[in-house]
Amino acid sequence: MVCSTSSNRAFSSLHDHRELWDGEYWRHIPGFSQVTQTEFESHQFQQRATITSVAQLRQTLGDLPGDAFYEDLSAGIRNAPMALRISPHLLSLVDWSNAAHDPIRTQFLPLRSRQQPDHPMLQLDSLAERKDSPVPGLTHRYPDKALFLPVDTCPVYCRFCTRSYAVGAETELVTEKLKLHASQARWSQAFEYIESKPGLEDIVISGGDSYNLRADHLEAIGRRLLEIPHVRRIRFATKGLCVMPQKVLSDERWTDALTRVAELARRLHKTAVVHTHFNSPHEIVGVTRRAMDLFVERGITVRCQTVLQNGVNSDPSVMQLLVKRLGYINIQPYYVYFHDMVPGVEDLRTSLAAGLDVEKRVRGTTAGFHTPAFVVDTMGGGGKRDAHSYEYYDRTNGVAVFTSPTVKPGKWFLYFDPLASLEPEVRLRWELPSEREAMVADAIRCAGGETRSAWQAIA
Q: Residue 387: phi, psi to the nearest 5?
């Protein structure tokens, strides 16, 4: 469907997964009103016109959101773990007549008025990736899988990034970040480690974002990993299809490099795929489908890992539409993550109970192999656990207890519901360190464990 109106509310039906917004959807943005289709759909323009400051945003949007919005945003950025970085593509998809509640604005432009106090159990590296890093930029947690981080930048910065301890520029909230700049010397360390571990069969290439790898670097990394005999599967993790699909269509060198890696994998009887990240059905538009059509023609498999977010996709009907729309453009819904505990984004998290209800309503919407698994990536490094597989869930105090016997046997791992989902008297308990300890200890005991091991797991 081609829409000529000036707002992304032009969908005729939010429940029709086949209706994708298309046409010159950027024209309603004052700073882009004279940009031609050829220019807007080039990756050079998308990168050159990416917004990295409130002043630049005001220059681009003008009076669309109003002065109060810019003040609210400036205050929100001061309380955010990630620097501001948003592409022209994403900016054009925001409904600026209702910016406070828009799902795309919510993910990338933090408003102080919407933020909530952090949960007291929050930790910056909540998944303990650094603890499981034998060499810089490589996390080895699962027996046969490792996470490789060749770069620490992305085409945009999600304000909810779980890797805010390392990705992007330093902020007022996170003043010292782990440096993982692109370095072939550091990459060689990772390759040598992978070669030394014959049990490793699956390597995720992330960051940052593999979209930000130069074409020659992407191909070199892919070939180097595929040449290791025991490596059977590699995955390029990128949010690029969501935030800048124009690159797939216009950066021929990058897309060709990815294609050659996928072809090499097939010749070696291995797999090289793309794992991407969409959270809202509004992020899937005509140019997204065209980018995916090219990937399909090239034989490149794409799977999606979504993050469950309050006000973005926590409504079951929205998640249903997202899952159906992903399937329609040949992206396989793979995971829905419960939101990690990240500084400055407590407003985005949902309770475990709320997410389980969404999962219940999504299941049956489409074919089983296109139905994502809802998982908790547990604090302390226990890895991904099926959200239903908790050992105990204290819904009153908002504490869920998980075990991870194949990853870290004998330890207990926790998920905490957001404070806003709890009764006022319970929120007051979380303000007191002695009460926090008691609530966690009670949950561990009810799960059949000992208190001491729980604190070791989340420390």
A: -60, -25
Q: What is the mean pLDDT of residues 272-291?
A: 98
- Structural domain that includes position 324: 138-387
Task: For residues 262 and 322, state if they share a domain.
Answer: yes
Residues 403 and 380 in one domain: no
If one counts every other C-beta atom within 10 angstroms of the C-beta of residue 98, the result is 11
Beta strands in 241-382 (DSSP E): 271-276, 302-307, 332-337, 373-378
Rounded distance between C-alpha atoms, residue 421 and residue 215, angstroms: 45
Q: How far apart are CA 348 and CA 279, in angstroms?
A: 12
Beta-strand runs (E) in 199-269: 202-205, 233-237
CA gap 95, 53 in Å, rounded = 20
pLDDT at 10: 39
Residue 272 belongs to some domain of the structure: yes
Asked if residue 166 and residue 290 are part of one domain, the reply reads yes
Work out the percent of the chain whose per-residue pLDDT is above 70.
93
Residues 162 and 244 occupy one common structural domain: yes
Domain boundary pick from 387, 414, 444 = 387
- In this prediction the pTM is 0.92
DSSP states along 116-127: -PPPTT--TTTT
For residues 199 and 221, state if they share a domain. Answer: yes
Reported for 137-143, long-range contacts at CB under 8 A and 24+ positions apart, including other chains, are: 137/180, 137/186, 137/187, 137/190, 138/189, 138/190, 138/193, 138/194, 140/193, 140/197, 140/200, 141/381, 141/383, 141/407, 142/202, 142/383, 142/407, 143/199, 143/406
CA 36, 40, 44, 50 torsion-angle sign: positive
Mean pLDDT within 280-303: 98
pLDDT at site 2: 38
What pairs with residue 237 in β-bridges? 275
Residue 449 inside a domain? The answer is yes
Quick one: 432 and 373 in the same domain?
Answer: no
Look at residue 451 in the predicted model and tell me its pLDDT.
Answer: 57
**CA-to-CA distance for 156 and 168, rounded, in angstroms?**
9
Cβ atoms 379, 116 nearer than 8 A? no
Residue 109 has pLDDT above 70, yes or no: yes
* Overall domain count for the chain: 3
- Banded model confidence at residue 78, pLDDT cuts 50, 70, 90: very high
Domain match, 177 and 264 both: yes
What's the rounded Cα separation, in Å, for the pair 82 and 110? 10
* 34: its two tokens: 């004279």
